[in-house]
């Protein structure tokens, strides 16, 4: 496996390309130049063949010139083969480098940096945008570079052949450019409208598909059909208009060029009458005009692709140049066990947030205790759970374990001590077994089975035809939300952590299964410190310590009995959930 | 010279079409015939286009010949030749514009018609159809397939036509002008055909491999980036990067090969074009020296040979596009062929009592895998039935049968003493107000959404429903209150807020029967407490079905049915069930006893 050196910090896409592929790129474009030059020579050579060979009845000149033309065609072919290879190598390798640089950067993101992007846009930047850039590089080293070279070259060759006749280009080129500009300026806004129309139609369809039960239950299909008909007709109309504007372009450009040819013939006729023009020259001229036409149209296309690639480069650059923030200090302290977990005047707020998410929390957790964290949505309980694995560090106050602030610990070893089960269950491509081994790579089958038994996952795993080797993740078996949650719990248990963080991890489970899991987990009590975040009072009532959060503040801390006596917020939560207390 | 270049096509779609894995329609002719249903309204336009294409093709064929004649006549006065050329070029432009202009309208009308038919079909499809098919699949049939289908069928057919005219016509013209020079000009043709075949088949395999590898890599990227937290928490950064690098290098290797092969096609055509250029030039000059042909004829030949070779090259692409389009058409027709919800004319349910009974109802989604076993219950009009049980116990299935989203495999579901199958679906569904766990809102304002069940409600009624369902407070805090525009699914609202809107929607509808399937599962507990009163009054005197995990919300139900694996295991009211100390009692204690 070839090792790529990681990108240096805040490097730009262009400089990355230039520093690594400058040589091959220049070489490739040079070969494109050779190829274009060979293409350009042919009409002039043919003109000579006809005007000198045929008109002067020199068979030797014909043969001689013919061989020369063959040789030029051969050289052109050679150049084309080489630039083809170079373009493929440079574009694909560069794409791989860019992707790798981006991926390493993203995986190296701190949580603060990660929070600056929508995850789905990170994915499209690494996939679609890189592909766009890659295609652009590929195109440049092929036809994109060839088109302008051919265009300018054809102008020069034509002028060399007959300077006077080339005046015709002074008319043709601006006219075609004008047509192209007109087409683009009328077409682009229309196509944006078309895209809008397509989006509208698609979103209506998606709505009906996703809300089909509601549509049917409310017997409202007629309404939907009316909404759809409007959007559909709208789209049809704008598409037709847009299609028609574009429909004019190709025939128009062809007509301009063809009229030039007719004009050329009539002028050539006048010149020939005075003996100032040979037929071969006219033939060559017609060929050059065709090449210029191709070049002009292609250049317009290149500009369009360029605009798209530029947007991609900008999106990718945002990742590469994302400002560094939230970098975590890591110390060297390590310990076999967690020790006492302590928070002192802990405060935290998200970047750019106006209010504190957590404010002045203080509590102490002895090793092996089970801690329940209870609160309504938005009370800050999930954020507290995310401070423990050091996704973020508190802005004020200290969180410490084993008598040392968390930043003193070796970050990697600290995270190896704990296991985190998020509310939204995430599994990765691979088998069930491979996913569970994320917990601990050297876990034995028996340990996996034990963890799954506690997580109430054993029975459904064994019911799958391929059992432990059932593929899951994007390309694997479709699991229900509850099954996924149980597997993520099992994955965490496989780790045998000193600190287990359950972040509302049972939300997709029915009450039955949840009760069974909680019962089974009692066997773990004392073996590890458990931090259990929940909205449900019943889930945490037996915890050794319950932290009640309200709007980021600690509204109460203690056992169930203590809180019932002393904490009004806790009593309110209990009663709202219909929990009776004595 | 009418040697048209369409770089935008030749560079993206054409290349893709050419090397895309071969999609073949299963029954191309039959599909084409069935598709003609949507083309039929355009048949006059199609005939018109065919004539235009044919005319244009013929005109384009004469132009190189006229050009050759003109070159020969250089210096001796061109006269009518120039006029003919001028007329020819103008006509070509005119016909060409007409063709593309007509095409733009025609293909859009066909697409719109096809979309309308497919959308209307959704109305007639049973819920089961949607349950067992991923949305993405249907979406892609609606968008990619339909678009590909109609435009490609219309365009490919005309392209096919003009290509054939160009090939046959150019060949005929060349043979008429000089058979010997024809041989010289076409020396390269077999080479083009053979080489482009080799390249295409080779590239196709490599492209498939490249797509597969790219898919795997993108999957890895997506999983590990969206699963960022887990990667960090489990300290797996190193290993996911390693896996990424492995797949990334593999992709680069394959992609270099695939691109190299794919890139051969263009220069190859170019080289062969050049060779044929040289062959015509040299042979023609030699023949001109012998006095067999004129210089002008050489010029004509240069154009004819290009007009002959290029469409040959295009044919493969056009054919593939057409095949892909037909395959897409088949995917669309598959939906059209799906069996529909049979709506036998039935009685209209109106102002009935709302007395519901299940008689020995059994049901299975997949034959042989029953989810309800002989379920019996009776809910007198105005009473509330609560359904309790683990996931998969069959609670939601009961709801599905009530609303006739599905129909009982065995037994009967009765509404006011009559089988629900005897009522029209429409009247039956109007009788039920449904709040589902997975709340769905439509794009439009909050007001539009609340009115969904009864479009005629006044603003006051809408707002009253908002107040009753405790949604009013948060709605008024939205930027434009009741007129706030909700984007698809109400993504800017929390789950709980969406549920409140769904409840308000039903409150406004004021239906005789009510189904609440986990209707408040995402509402925070304090709001739920307030809401419970509203729900109680909503259920009062209305036959109601309630499903809830939180047992505290169903204590007041007249009857509670405990389901386990499709069977009724306990039934009774709250107190009765607590006293039997069974499943219900244990669960209730686990949830509520401190």
Task: Give me the secondary-structure topology.
The complex is a heterodimer of chains A (582) and B (594).
Chain A: H1 13-54, H2 59-107, H3 111-114, H4 119-161, H5 167-210, H6 212-217, H7 221-273, H8 279-320, E1 341-348, E2 358-365, E3 370-375, H9 381-387, E4 396-401, E5 404-405, H10 411-417, E6 418-421, E7 430-431, H11 432-436, H12 445-454, H13 458-463, E8 471-472, H14 481-494, E9 499-503, H15 511-521, E10 529-534, H16 537-540, E11 545-550, E12 553-558, H17 560-566, H18 568-576
Parallel strand pairs in A: 3-10, 3-11, 6-9, 9-10
Antiparallel strand pairs in A: 1-2, 1-4, 4-5, 7-8, 11-12
Helix pairs in contact in A: 1-2, 1-4, 1-8, 2-4, 4-8, 5-7, 5-8, 7-8, 12-14
Chain B: H1 7-19, H2 28-39, H3 43-72, H4 80-124, H5 127-131, H6 135-177, H7 179-186, H8 188-226, H9 228-233, H10 237-290, H11 295-337, E1 356-364, E2 370-379, E3 384-388, H12 395-402, E4 410-415, E5 418-419, H13 425-431, E6 432-435, E7 444-445, H14 446-450, H15 459-468, H16 472-477, E8 485-486, H17 495-509, E9 513-517, H18 525-539, E10 543-547, E11 559-564, E12 567-572, H19 574-580, H20 583-592
Parallel strand pairs in B: 3-10, 3-11, 6-9, 9-10
Antiparallel strand pairs in B: 1-2, 1-4, 4-5, 7-8, 11-12
Helix pairs in contact in B: 1-11, 2-11, 3-4, 3-6, 3-11, 4-6, 6-7, 6-11, 7-10, 7-11, 8-10, 10-11, 15-17, 19-20
Give an account of the 3D structure.
The complex is a heterodimer of chains A (582) and B (594). Helix content of chain A is 62%, strand content 10%. Chain A is α/β, with parallel strands linked by helices and 582 residues long. Chain A has a 6-stranded mixed β-sheet, with helices on both faces. A 4-stranded antiparallel β-sheet of chain A has the order 2-1-4-5, covered by helices on one side. A two-stranded antiparallel sheet of chain A has the order 7-8. In chain A, strand 11 (545-550) and strand 12 form a beta hairpin. The longest helix of chain A has 53 residues, at 221-273. The two termini of chain A are 66 Å apart. The model of chain A is unreliable at 1-9 (pLDDT under 50). With 594 residues, chain B is an alpha/beta fold. Helices cover 64% and strands 10% of the residues of chain B. Chain B is built from 20 helices and 12 strands. A 6-stranded mixed β-sheet of chain B has the order 6-9-10-3-11-12, sandwiched between helices. Chain B has a 4-stranded antiparallel β-sheet with strand order 2-1-4-5, with helices on one face. Chain B has a two-stranded antiparallel ribbon with strand order 7-8. In chain B, helix 7 packs antiparallel against helix 10 (237-290), helix 7 crosses helix 11 (295-337) and helix 10 (237-290) runs antiparallel to helix 11 (295-337). Mean pLDDT of chain B is 85; it is low at 1-15.
